[in-house]
Structures are given as structure tokens and as C-alpha cells.
UniProtKB/TrEMBL annotation:
Classification via Gene3D superfamilies: 1.10.10.2220, 2.30.30.940, 5' to 3' exonuclease, C-terminal subdomain, P-loop containing nucleotide triphosphate hydrolases
Protein name: ATP-dependent RecD2 DNA helicase
Higher taxonomy: Bacteria, Bacillati, Bacillota, Clostridia, Lachnospirales
GO biological process: DNA recombination
Family from the record: Belongs to the RecD family. RecD2 subfamily.
The ATP-dependent RecD2 DNA helicase-like helix-hairpin-helix domain, residue ranges: 148-237
Ranges for domain ATP-dependent RecD2 DNA helicase SH3: 566-630
Record-linked InterPro entries: Coronavir_polyprotein_1ab, P-loop_NTPase, RecD2, RecD2-like_HHH, RecD2_N_OB, RecD2_SH13, RuvA_2-like, UvrD-like_helicase_C
The enzyme's E.C. designation: 5.6.2.3
Length: 737
């Protein structure tokens, strides 16, 4: 342990808290620069204190660096409570307590001296004796003091377990002033927080609580973690044997001191079901309460919407009239699809690229308006890009699903106002394969009976990022009328569509030409270089329109052809820094004018997946800002120092590209990719985003493997089964009546 004080800062990374700073100490150190009887040294760590005048205890070890010499690598630290008047003054004015600056700090210490902290704790109203402290300011000061003290107590308790200051602050915000007592009682309560999974919390629990390997609280936390991980894989539930296997493996990997028996895991699981009510057992399947309720509510509401006695229309004459007006002849299945929509309260239209889904949507909207000129029509899609394409295709305003139902949280985590129902006569939801179980339930619960609902999508595309496989389950249930469009009408660059159909059927005999090509690369390093050159070349051929060329990759990170890695390379190639050029930094990302960027969270005016261009970087009151043009007169300002949900978008994941189209698409495919990324529907989805040209870069062997691999692993969901059961029960009741 080194007793020291902060001297100066060398480096601080706002994104991850990495700190390099100079401290001075009177303790003995291996090497140091002597200055007024004290020695200076460099410390390296996460979120190290940089407050002047405070007494700090650093715990860590000395390490030799070839470039920088001896450095103290800090594992944990503690800010000491001062005992002298000067120390108290330094503590109060250090910035740890909001509302107290040097002048107020000096006045407080001059009045109360060493008793200052006693006054804060026992008789805080006496602080009103200090000139400049009003009741309002006192409330703010006390809030800051108690928060600072809570964080200090948490640090004493958790820093030895390697919990960083930034995480300690998050813990305090989540649990409030009772944080220490809550975590002392059950450290696994930390698993409630984002970024604190079981694997992170388990070693913390062992250090601060000395939990036994078979402690029921530990086993329960492991079971909940296993189900959360399964949800990340797309599952709504797990079978009991799978939970037992995964939980046993997780518990043993985290603590090899003792064997946890299957009986104890079963007991903990039963307690989570019966006592804690956090899990639900249904047909031997184990759900989280949230997932179970989501699936159940969706089924009940969809059944109610489907059996509502909605008015049926014979629209044959309207179809014929529009065919003449639009100079379009619908195919038989397209015609049947339009008729089906106006004969049923809920219906489904599915088909691949070029199969005529867009034409059908236009016809459906136009007929609805002819049937009732005052019709209320809602067109919605899961992402901003899909919404925009829907609008461009139909000429009718469209919204994201989140916007249409009033989901206000990041990606729909916050609840909507249940009182505001959707009362539209016609509701069309496009790109339904992207809709997960929770979003689908939120949508269903907002639709009023009497609405005509149409679900549209390509059942062969990638499943939703979130849990469930809603669109496929709706089709497989066979209780909702479905039109399958299997005829291709699009003539532009038929090779892309021809190959997409072959890939979807698992066929290997693809056609390669100018619109569909393959560039060989042995590894991700070679592939990254070739992708960068190809992007540059295609960008120039597209008159330097960055929106015309898109890299779609399976991975966001962990490889040199990931979205994050490629964005750095492509940005510096086509938009390099020039002397005098304005830049703005956010975390570890640097943005320049003309950069292509993507929003990654839903906000009021923009949606997750919206792509824009940086148009301006300026400065107001000494702070930089950046303006991004997202189109449709949506210009958003991002302020320096704030957290931005923004990334570069020259390369994005195939999931993020879903629902969009681009003239040119470049796709990496390599044998080094994880097995779950070498799957048929991922590359089918990526390839069908291209309108004019597809360039695959990597290994043909890996591509062949992906086509052979077939579809993704089946997701655990009972939506289809529950729908069949619900509709059967309705029929039985009707027959009995």
C-alpha cells in the first residue's frame, strides 16, 4: 500500500477510464524523482483519483516498462478521510461533493474546523450558518456529500475485489444509500445490473462474502445467468436437463473448491419458481417470468384480434381498376394475397427479394383508401432504415414500431402508456423477421380489436437479434392466413437474385459475373486490406457516394474484418485527416466532417440503425459539437463530453443491414469465423441487401460451408404451439355454443 497525493495527469481515456498519472509520496519507492522531500512516481490503473490535496492509499505492484521505466499498477485505491483542517478543506473542494467549491469549503472549515464531518452527519442544518448556503444549496450539498460517502464506503468494501470506481458509482446509483448493506447480505444482487453477469460477480462474492461453492444464493444467480445467456442466443426457455448441465458447468468453472450436486441445483431452481417467482415452469420448459408473460400475452391478444368480427370486402373490382391505372398485372398469388387481406382481420404475406411484396403493399394501401377515404392507416417497421424503405416504396408515411407504440426507452426497455391504443383501420408491419418476442408483445398489446393487421416479411432472412422467432412461428402455426410469394419479378441484375435463391435452397452451383463476384483472401488480415481497396474503388465508381457502398460483416468485433476494425481502416482511407480539418472525439472514436455514421439506440427523432453523414463540427462556449444529417430534415446535434450512441457505418453487421438496400455490398467470409456466423440465412440476408453488385471476400470453402450448414439452430419458443392451442380452444367453445 502506498500513501500518496495526486500531482499531475499524463493520460486519461474517457471511454474505459484508463488512467496514467503522477503521484507524490513520502513512502519508500524503487525509483523516483525527489522534490521537496517527496518522491514522484507514475501510477497506472482504472479511474485513478485525480483530485488535488487528497490523501490516497494505492494498492498494487511495481512493474517495469521498457519505454517508461518502473510504474505502479494499481489494483485498488482508497481516498482517506482527512484529519486536519487543511485536509478537510482540500477534501470538500476536491470536486467529490457537488456544490462545494474552494470558497464555500474555506468558510465551512473556518467555522467548524475538525468537527466539519460531525456537522455534516449529525447536525447538517448548521451549515445554513455559512454565508452563501441557502436551504436549496444545502440540499444539493448534502446529496453530494452522502453520495460521496456512500461511494467511499462501497470502495472500502469492493475495491479489494477489483471493482473499478466507475462500476462502484453505478452500483451506488442502482442501490442507493443501502448499497453496502444490500451487497453484504447478497453480493449476487449485483447481477441485476447491466455489465455485472455471474462470471463478474462470482469472484467478487468469494472475496467480500466468502461464499461456499454450494451456497443457494450462488446457485440461483447461476441459473438466472444461464437463462439470460440462452435468451441472448434467441431462446425464450430451456429444458430442465439443459439448465442442469449449463449451471453445473458454470458453477464448477467459477469455483473448483467443491462439487455442486444436481439435487442442490434442482432445489435452487424450484425455489426460484415457488418462492421468488422469478421463473415459470410450463410444459417442463423453464422460462424467466418476463419471457413467459410476453409469450402468453401475445397469444391471448393475437387470438382476440384474429377472431374479432371485422367487415369483409370483395376487392376484385378494385384490384382490376388499379391494375389498369398503374399499368401493372398482378400475378395470381399477388391477387389472392390482396383479397386475403380484406377477408381477414389478421394475415401474413411472405416472400423473398423481388417477389412483389412492395407492389402488394401499395395495392393494399390504395384499396383501403378507396374503401374509406378517411381511413386511418399505420405502416411500421422495426428499424429506421426499414421504415424509410417502406415510405419510399409506398409513398405513404411510415413509422418505426417503437415510435408507433410509444416505446420511449433505449430499444424499447421502458414501458409504454397502456392507455393510448392504436385505433388504425389498417396496420401493416414490414420486415417482421426482425421483430423479437418482446417487441411483438408490446405491439400486440397496443392494437385495438377491429383493426385489420398485415404482417409482411421474408421468413428465410436472419432471425431477430432479441429472443424468439416470431415471424416463422406465426407462419408455422397455420392459424393465420398466409400468402407465399414465390415468383421473382425483379429483372435488374438477375444473377444476385438467382444466387440468393440457390443459397436459400442449399445449392452450391452459383453464377459469378460482374454483378456477383468472389475475391480470394487467405486470412482476415489479407481480407481487410482487400476490402479496404474494394471499398475505395467502388466508392469512386459511385461518384464518392458513401451510402452507395456498404460492407456487411457477421461480426462487430474480434476479427480484422469486424465492423469496428474495418470502420477504422476505411474511414482513414476515404476520409483521412487533413491539416486544419475539424475533428471531434467521443470515447475512443474520432469523427470528421463527411464521416458516415449510424445511431445505435432509439431516441426521440432517430432510430436504432439510422445512418447519417457528419455535416458540421463547431464550438459553443468552449465545447465542441457535431451535427449529423440523417435525412428527411432530421439533423441531430451531439455535444462534446456527452455519451453518444453513435458509431462509424462504412461497415456494419449483417443484422444491422437487414431491412436496407444498397447499390453495392461487400461481404467478408472466412474459415476463422465462429461457427454460428457461418450460416446460410446470414449470407442470404447480406446478399439480398444488394441492388446492383455483390462482392464476397475470403474463402470459397468457408462460403460453401455456410451454405451447407443450413439455417440457424432452432430457437426455443412455444409461440406456434400456444397459438394453435388458443385457436383450437376458441373453435371448441364456438362449436359447444
Amino acid at each position: 500500500m502506498l500513501e500518496c497525493r495526486y500531482a499531475s495527469s499524463i493520460y486519461y481515456n474517457q471511454e474505459n477510464g484508463y488512467t496514467v498519472a503522477v503521484y507524490e509520496t513520502e513512502d519508500e519507492i524503487p525509483e523516483g524523482k525527489k522534490e521537496i522531500g517527496k518522491q514522484q512516481f507514475i501510477a497506472v490503473g482504472c479511474e485513478l483519483p485525480r483530485n488535488e490535496g487528497l490523501d490516497i492509499s494505492l494498492k498494487g505492484q511495481w512493474k517495469e516498462s521498457e519505454r517508461y521505466g518502473k510504474q505502479y499498477h494499481v489494483a485498488s485505491f482508497e481516498i482517506q478521510m482527512p484529519t486536519t483542517g487543511e485536509g478537510v478543506k482540500a477534501y470538500l473542494s476536491s470536486g467529490l461533493i457537488k456544490g462545494v467549491g474552494p470558497i464555500i469549503a474555506e468558510r465551512i472549515v473556518d467555522r467548524f474546523g475538525k468537527n466539519t464531518f460531525y456537522v455534516f452527519e449529525q447536525c447538517p442544518e448548521r451549515l445554513l450558518e455559512i454565508p452563501g448556503i441557502t436551504q436549496r444549496k444545502l440540499d444539493s450539498i448534502l446529496e453530494g456529500y452522502h453520495k460521496s460517502e456512500n461511494i467511499r464506503q462501497l470502495s472500502l468494501f469492493l475495491s479489494s475485489a477489483g471493482v473499478t470506481p466507475k462500476k462502484i458509482e453505478k452500483i451506488q446509483e442502482h442501490f442507493g444509500h443501502k448499497a453496502v448493506s444490500i451487497i453484504k447480505k447478497d453480493p449476487f444482487r449485483l447481477c441485476e445490473m447491466e455489465g455485472f453477469g455471474f462470471k463478474t460477480v462470482d469472484p467478487i462474492a468469494r472475496k467480500v462474502k466468502h461464499f461456499q461453492a454450494d451456497n443457494p444464493l450462488r446457485i440461483k444467480a447461476a441459473i438466472l445467468y444461464v437463462l439470460k445467456e440462452a435468451e441472448g442466443e434467441g431462446h425464450l426457455y430451456l429444458e430442465v436437463p439443459e439448465i442442469l448441465t449449463r449451471t453445473k458447468s458454470l458453477l464448477f468453472r467459477g469455483d473448483k473448491r467443491g462439487h455442486v450436486t444436481e439435487r442442490k441445483i434442482r432445489d435452487a431452481g424450484n425455489s426460484l419458481i415457488k418462492d421468488d417467482k422469478e421463473l415459470v415452469c410450463s410444459y417442463t420448459k423453464i422460462y424467466s417470468k418476463k419471457n413467459y408473460e410476453s409469450e402468453q400475452k401475445a397469444v391471448i391478444q393475437l387470438a382476440a384480434l384474429s377472431r374479432y368480427p371485422i367487415k369483409r370486402y370483395d376487392v376484385e373490382k378494385w384490384i382490376s381498376g388499379l391494375e389498369s391505372k398503374e399499368n401493372i398485372q398482378l400475378a395470381e398469388k399477388q391477387r389472392k394475397g390482396v383479397e386475403m387481406v380484406f377477408q381477414n382481420p389478421v394475415s401474413i404475406i411472405t416472400g423473398g427479394p423481388g417477389s412483389g411484396k412492395t407492389t402488394l403493399l401499395r395495392f393494399i394501401v390504395m384499396i383501403q383508401e378507396k374503401l374509406n377515404i378517411d381511413s386511418m392507416i399505420l405502416l411500421a417497421a422495426p428499424t429506421g432504415r426499414a421504415r424509410q424503405r417502406m415510405y419510399e416504396a409506398t409513398g405513404y408515411p411510415a413509422l418505426t414500431i417503437h415510435k408507433s407504440i410509444g416505446l420511449t426507452g433505449a430499444d424499447g426497455e421502458e414501458a409504454w402508456n397502456a392507455g393510448e391504443m392504436l385505433c388504425d383501420d389498417l396496420i401493416i408491419i414490414d420486415e417482421c423477421s426482425m421483430v423479437d418476442m418482446h417487441l411483438f408483445t408490446s405491439l400486440m398489446m397496443k392494437i385495438k380489436t377491429g383493426s385489420r393487421i398485415v404482417f409482411v416479411g421474408d421468413k428465410d432472412q436472419l432471425e431477430s437479434v432479441g429472443p424468439g422467432n416470431v415471424f416463422k412461428e406465426l407462419i408455422d402455426s397455420r392459424v393465420i392466413p398466409v400468402t407465399v410469394l414465390d415468383q421473382c419479378f425483379r429483372q435488374e441484375n438477375p444473377t444476385i437474385l438467382e444466387n440468393a435463391i440457390k443459397i436459400n435452397c442449399g445449392k452450391q452451383n452459383l453464377v459469378y459475373d460482374n454483378s456477383f463476384s468472389f475475391v480470394a483472401a487467405h486470412d482476415d488480415e489479407e481480407a481487410a486490406k482487400k476490402i479496404m481497396k474494394l471499398f475505395d474503388m467502388e466508392w469512386k465508381l459511385q461518384r464518392k457516394n458513401v451510402n452507395a457502398v456498404q460492407v456487411l460483416t457477421p461480426l462487430r468485433e474480434d476479427t480484422k474484418v469486424s465492423a469496428n476494425a474495418l470502420n477504422l481502416k476505411i474511414k482513414d482511407r476515404i476520409n483521412p485527416y487533413q491539416i486544419g480539418q475539424q475533428e471531434i472525439k467521443n470515447g475512443n472514436k474520432i469523427f470528421r466532417i463527411q464521416d458516415k455514421v449510424m445511431q445505435t439506440k432509439n431516441e426521440d427523432e432517430i432510430s436504432n440503425g439510422d445512418i447519417g453523414i457528419v455535416r458540421k463540427i463547431g464550438k459553443v462556449s468552449g465545447k465542441k459539437y457535431m451535427e449529423v444529417d440523417f435525412g428527411e430534415e432530421r439533423v441531430m446535434r451531439y455535444q462534446e463530453g456527452e455519451s453518444w450512441n453513435l458509431v462509424h457505418a462504412y461497415a456494419i453487421t449483417a443484422h444491422k443491414g437487414q431491412g436496407s438496400e444498397y447499390p453495392v455490398v461487400i461481404i467478408p467470409i472466412l474459415s476463422c469465423f465462429r461457427r454460428h456466423t457461418l450460416k446460410r440465412n446470414l449470407y442470404y440476408t447480406a446478399i439480398t441487401r444488394a441492388k446492383r453488385k455483390v462482392i464476397l471476400v475470403g474463402s470459397k470453402q468457408a462460403f460453401s460451408q455456410a451454405i451447407r450448414a443450413g439455417r440457424s439452430k432452432k430457437r426455443n419458443t412455444l409461440l406456434s404451439y400456444r397459438l394453435k392451442k388458443a385457436f383450437t380452444e376458441v373453435l371448441d367453445k364456438n362449436e359447444a355454443a
